[in-house]
Amino acid sequence: MKGLRKLLLLSFIALVTTLLAVGCSSNDDMDKVRLAEVTRSIFYAPQYVAISEGFFEEEGIEIDLTTTWGGDTTMTTLLANGADVALVGAETSIYVYAQDANDPPINFAALTQTDGTFLVSREPIDDFNWDMLKGSTFLGQRTGGMPQMVGEHVLRNHGIDPHGDLNLIQNIDFGNIPSAFASGTGDYVQLFEPTATQFELDGIGHIVASFGVESGTVPYTGFMAKQSYIDKNGEVLERFTKALYRAQQWIEASSTEEIAKSIQPFFSDTSLEVIEYVVENYKSQGSYATTPRIKEEAWENLHTIMEQAGELPMTVPYEELVNTEIAEKVME
């Protein structure tokens, strides 16, 4: 009996050792990519789909995802080698390049192709027009950031001087803007989802317009890596981009409900109903890029928006900061 027990114990140990060895071997075969995202947002649904549907894993990539909360922090993390890839606005790459960076971050894949904010009014408006903003108090976004620059661009396109025709408030931290509006500050506010939808459901505000619809195509948020990382890990980034492209195609072919269920684990504090509503908003207005290729006309539009806002430090040619080879190879 003792001999049988000993044999069973040895067999069990051997089995566990084998399973552990298989597990370690599997992990060793995976390439880890440290990914820093500028914020956690339903606006970035294709990224979460690529993770939840196993597309990155199937391409042999293990994603180590960190939310770094803000463009400046995200870029600093990338430049300091705290991340391999950053999901952040393309304007940050221009800011860094203008400072004579010797290893500049290069944009290699698009995630979103429009602005992701909505204009929310305090009172319900049945027949909104942009002239209603004149003379109002407007809660804007951070100076130099894409939301604010796009917001000003849209206002100018509608004949409104953002610094002359309304009372523009920009001294409130990004995270405190919703609570400032909820507490009574401002007649209008520029908000991301799902806050805009939640405010509407709670009766705090009312969505009256989309800055994404009004602004046109722009490389609003995408993936970038330092040139040195691209040089050394081009094949890894090809597989990374292939997984992203698969997610983009999956979103195009899937229903709002399927997308919402796929990304729900990343938004545990948001109801499935709200996630579905937000996904529908973004998908219907074409906010999610359908391919990873960053378009040249979108890059030029970015320059126009930054120049109008007085935030363009220098004109940077498309070919200088945009790598199209990876996306094009993946799309072949």
Task: Give me a quick take on this structure.
This protein is of the alpha/beta class and 332 residues long. 48% of the residues lie in helices and 16% in strands.
State mean pLDDT (0 to 100 scale): 92
Oligomer: single chain
Q: Could you tell me the radius of gyration in angstroms?
A: 23 Å
Can you count the helices? 15
Quote the distance from N terminus to C terminus. 64 Å
**Biggest sheet character:** 5 strands, mixed
Q: Low-confidence runs (pLDDT<50, min 5 residues)?
A: 1-26
Spatial order of strands in the largest sheet: 2-1-3-10-4
CATH class of the largest domain: Alpha Beta
**What is the SS-derived class?**
alpha/beta
The helix content is 40-55%
Order of helices and strands: HEHHEHEHEEEHEHEHEHEHHHHHH
Tertiary shape? globular
CATH homologous superfamily grouping of the largest domain = Periplasmic binding protein-like II
Total separate domains? 2
CATH topology of the largest domain: D-Maltodextrin-Binding Protein, domain 2
Tally of strands: 10
Q: What percent of residues are in strands? A: 15-25%
CATH architecture of the largest domain: 3-Layer(aba) Sandwich
Pfam family, one: NMT1_2
Family: Belongs to the bacterial solute-binding protein SsuA/TauA family.
Main location: periplasm
Keywords: Signal
